[in-house]
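Table S2 (continued). Query chain:
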Amino acid sequence: MNTIRDKESLYKVMRTCTDLSKLVDVAKIIEDDSSIIERIQEAKELTSLLEEFKAENISALKSMLKLAQNVLADDSNKIEITQETLLSLGVTSIEELEEALRDKGIAAQFTHKSTPTVEMFLAVQRLIERSKANVISYLKSLSAYDCSELEELATTVIGGIKKDGLPIYVVVRPSDNGEVIIYYSSEKDALDTSNAELWTDNGVDKPKRLTLGKILKTTGINRIPVN
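Corresponding output:
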């Protein structure tokens, strides 16, 4: 004991009542395999990861990592929200966009990494107003439609129109982007009635009525649940 210079460390060992022969064995193992210290450090880091992600074991951690990879892979297939996207959705404010993204079907299609600018929303508003004006003007030119008492029930839903003497609802959407995405409850409620029509306008051609037959042909849908 007198030959050991680091008396403080020696006293610590002695106070633990540890079998010195076991410490000697451990020291020899470390001396024979210097990488063991590195492996011990790696084990500590792994334990830290398990604690951080609240995983019970390595298998659970692997499952969480695999799930994260799948989520990232799904995100890579999503489409960035642009002005064209806003136009297809028919949203004119950040509040309406946030409401749209609460719909799981909508959220699954788009990624929302950046906030659209005010100019983008204003542009969509102008296009919606243009489409409504064009559709109303076109319907007024048709003898079957009476628009003398029309009223806006929602941003894209018009009431007070009569066709062949019967009241109808008209849902109007810009089609500049070549598609429309129906998600507003006001639009769905109107289109759920038997006396509703969906009209589109691209600002170039005459407004067009989007019929069920046209939807079936363009989307390829051939099975419709009736319950």
